[in-house]
Amino acid sequence: MNLLFEVFLEELPTSEMAHLENNLLELFTKEMKDRNIPYKEPTFYLTPRRMALKFEFEEKTKQEDKKIYGPPKSVCFKDGKPTKALEGFLKKNNAAEEDLSFEETKKGEYAVIVKKGDVLETKPLAVEAIKNIFTNIHFYKKMKWGDGEYEYVRPVHNVLFLINNEPIDFEFMGKKANSYTFGHRFMSKGKIEVNFENYESKLDENFVIVSQGKRKDLILKELENTAKEQDAQLIYDDDLLKEVVNLVEYPVVVIGKFEDGFLKLPKEVLVTSMKDHQKYFAFTKNGKLLNMFAAISNIKANNIDIIRNGYERVLKARFSDAEFFFEEDKKEKLESFVEKLSDMLFHEKLGTQLERTQRLIELSGFTANLLGFDEKKARRAAYLSKADLLTQMVYEFPELQGVMGREYAFISGEDKEVAQAIYEQYLPKDNEIPETGAGISLSIADKVDIIVGGFFAGLKPTGAKDPYGLRRAAIGIIRTIIENKIFVNLRMILEKSAELYKKDVNFDEIMEFFKIRFENLYSNYPHDLLKSVTFNFDDIYDTYLRLLAIDRFVQEDTNKDKQFTIKRVFNIVKDFECLDVNEELFIQNEEKELFEKIRDIENELDVYLKDRRYFDFLKRITSIKDTVNIFFDKVMVMDRDKSLRNNRLSLLNRLKNIVLNVANFKYLEI
């Protein structure tokens, strides 16, 4: 059987459409599973004016057998005859005594009958599923219409519902289902009769490309062709592409131009204005921005020049505003805005932006000194870091904070690294990370400040909500440290931040927060490997290098038996506290031999750890595998004599402590 369902409604907000496909798939999978309906892969369609679904399914389904528990066995029979309790249970479930069995549970033995699942028609079940799917879609905001009887994301105008191309008796949001839909708002008129097979093609004939994937491919192909024709490069932006796909039913790419004079504005200003305010795509040639753009229209006009002129006129107004703001901001040096930050609140519990700036000056300087960077430049960058928040350009385009700070710093004659650091404080972003010493120091300090402040101010993330971006900040710090190959004790920076706040915070809780972000960021590695290295997490880059080493080590088949040997040491020692090894208590050669091997490795420890040659170190440790195994075979570790037992455990504990320089093998699933 086949099913086609469509809700035709007023324009959906793009903010709602961004999550709809995943939400529909989750609901669909759940509803079909709950009803045990066998089906083929569904197809979802989303346009600004419709949500649709079509799929094939089996005509019949056998429902699952169901166990029904009754009274305890002890009350089911009396003198060999069924009690009233048992008879009532059987009668209620339309069962006979021969259907009865008994099953052991946690509470004892209970009567149970198995109701065989019926073979059912799937058609009514599918109708129920569709109703639940489209009723239970999660929307951020709903609206009412008419007399307020119905509430949905937008008013519903039509419902199409066909099974085997026959209309279904069905009502949704006050609309009776039928066999037709509607095409493009302006380029198509009247009802369109459709069926399962021709749904896409019929809408295509009526200027609706109903498949969001096809709309995306069409737009991207046109943009790339335009770039090729101009010997230019498209500034690809996946978020913008997804957004325009959800804004149109029939995409038409319109190429426009703007005055060369606007190119004197910073490139980011022009690109941001085109993207965020107008939803236009920009192009570059030889790294320089071109004075052209691509807009995505939702109509195929006979005179495309009228539409193009409209796009160009609106963009000119935007750019003119930006030009005015830029010229006005340049009249003052960037540092003149700093003291005015005292009037801008950062957070009621964390002070003003000026107070935050003062903390960042100290924390950036501390971090730079710790990392071996120029402390003076880091402090200067921190002093200017939030000044652009008070410029007219950033007020109009908040997403340009940092970008404009860098531009105005250059114009004000600031050091090149200082100016770049003002921009880099907001990195990482996509594949871009801070690279200058001042930028790395300021970026880490900026994020540590919000994390430490957030923890004592009660701003910690809960569930999926993270309004102050603490998770993003932690991931940013982790990426900055690892991708710049920086060895640093993060706890020291956290402690300095808490000192500047003059607040007590739980550093273990914050480090655990970072640890979880690290494990999420590198979730492509097995969980046991992640756990084995994050037990020691103060130095994040060191942790990352140990992860790479243990991952490589455990993947080598030849190491499997060696891994088990070391794991065995950890299992036996467990939480035994380290005691000094007394050589005079050795009574077997195997003890002496193992002690000598361990001592040799201890003497070589600095050679490996200095250059963090962790993989080679693991190989060196496991090179004594045979000695360890012979020790286990010949020596009774858990001897009745307490002194011998403790001495042998201490010997193994020394080996365990050596291994802990790389990983905790107790977490490894070997």
* Tally of strands: 24
| Second CATH tier, the architecture of the largest domain | Orthogonal Bundle
List low-confidence stretches.
none
* Helix fraction by DSSP (H/I, runs of at least 4): 40-55%
The whole-angstrom Rg is: 34 Å
Task: Characterize the structure shown.
The protein is α+β, with helices and mostly antiparallel strands and 670 residues long. The chain folds into five domains: 2-61 and 121-205, ACT domain (Alpha-Beta Plaits, 2-Layer Sandwich); 65-116, no CATH class; 212-329, no CATH class; 335-521, Hypothetical protein af1432; 544-667, Isoleucyl-tRNA Synthetase, Domain 1. Strands 1, 2, 3, 13, 14, 15 and 16 form a seven-stranded mixed beta sheet that branches. A hairpin with a 3-residue loop joins strand 23 (345-347) and strand 24 (351-352). Helix 9 runs antiparallel to helix 10 (375-384), helix 14 (437-456) crosses helix 16 and helix 21 (589-610) packs parallel to helix 24 (642-659). The chain is flat. The model has no long low-confidence stretch (mean pLDDT 93).
Write the layout of secondary structure elements.
Elements: E1 2-9, H1 14-34, E2 43-47, E3 50-56, E4 60-62, E5 66-72, E6 77-78, E7 81-82, H2 84-92, E8 101-105, E9 108-115, E10 119-121, H3 122-135, E11 143-145, E12 150-152, E13 156-163, E14 166-167, E15 171-172, E16 175-178, E17 180-182, E18 191-193, H4 199-205, H5 212-229, E19 233-234, H6 238-245, E20 252-257, H7 267-278, E21 281-285, E22 288-297, H8 304-329, E23 345-347, E24 351-352, H9 353-371, H10 375-384, H11 392-396, H12 403-411, H13 416-424, H14 437-456, H15 470-483, H16 490-501, H17 507-521, H18 527-534, H19 540-555, H20 560-573, H21 589-610, H22 614-622, H23 625-634, H24 642-659
Parallel strand pairs: 13-16
Antiparallel strand pairs: 1-3, 1-13, 2-3, 4-10, 5-9, 6-7, 8-9, 11-12, 13-14, 15-16, 17-18, 19-21, 20-22, 21-22, 23-24
Helix pairs in contact: 1-3, 7-8, 9-10, 9-14, 9-16, 10-13, 10-14, 12-13, 13-14, 14-15, 14-16, 15-17, 18-19, 19-22, 20-24, 21-22, 21-23, 21-24
